[in-house]
Write a structure and sequence with these properties.
With 235 residues, the protein is mainly alpha-helical. 66% of the residues lie in helices and 0% in strands. The protein starts with a helix and ends in a 17-residue tail after the last helix.
């Protein structure tokens, strides 16, 4: 009975951790998606968020306040870093990985195929880029959220394995193939909010893939890491 209780507790902890990881991915996705508005900045400066970031060694919120001046300053920083005019860091995988370094390159098509092969769909009228860093991070948030609902459900163990395989594959084949370099360049150019948050995102990604792999090992799934794409995902 004690062993059964330990197993249940472990599954609950893994579900809670997957939920927390989903929140981290959503946070980073929101940071890189667009300049912050007052609502996002207020949530960012909540005592809980500031404490969580501080526990990770990130002090990027120290000089911020939820006023128009901070919002405008961050909008300027975002534009200069990621949009232009002038030299900027385009936050899209194809620009960093394809030989041509252009938008809508081969990597864009591969990311779009990967996401759609998982069971998710882009809205027909959506005009964004599938390999934008915010989209890739939000995709991982959706995977982690899906994973959280599978722990502790023996009848869904195959779905759980597929979900973890998909997480590992997307991290290793896409996010970790370019985002650490991208985040490193952001940190070089900006020592404030965006630079520190980019460094935190880089560290998080590099540690998260080890967590995902260890999760599979703990379940006794030898060789599980390479993917059988998660066709069981629900949109």
């Amino acid at each position: 009975m004690e062993r059964c209780t330990d197993i249940v507790d472990q599954k609950t902890a893994m579900a809670e951790l997957a939920h927390s990881r989903s929140g981290c991915y959503s946070f980073f996705a929101a940071v890189f998606a667009r300049p912050p508005d007052s609502g996002f900045l207020s949530r960012l400066l909540s005592p809980e968020t500031v404490a969580q970031l501080g526990s990770l060694g990130c002090r990027s919120t120290d000089d911020l306040s939820p006023d128009e001046e901070s919002i405008e300053a961050l909008a300027v920083e975002y534009t200069l870093l990621f949009v232009g005019p002038g030299p900027h860091l385009t936050p899209c995988e194809s620009v960093w990985r394809d030989n041509e370094g252009l938008l809508w390159g081969e990597c864009t098509s591969r990311v779009k195929l990967f996401i759609e092969s998982s069971g998710l769909r882009f809205q027909p009228d959506w005009r964004g880029l599938p390999d934008h860093v915010s989209v890739e991070l939000e995709f991982m948030a959706r995977l982690c959220s899906h994973e959280a609902g599978l722990w502790g459900r023996p009848e869904r163990v195959r779905d759980l394995r597929q979900c973890l395989e998909t997480e590992e594959s997307f991290l290793s084949d896409h996010l970790l193939a370019w985002v650490p370099s991208f985040c490193g360049r952001v940190a070089e150019r900006n020592s404030g909010y965006y630079g520190q948050t980019a460094q935190l995102a880089k560290d998080f990604l590099e540690s998260d893939i080890e967590h995902v792999r260890q999760s599979g090992i703990q379940q006794g799934w030898p060789g599980w890491q390479r993917p059988a794409w998660a066709s069981s995902l629900r949109s």
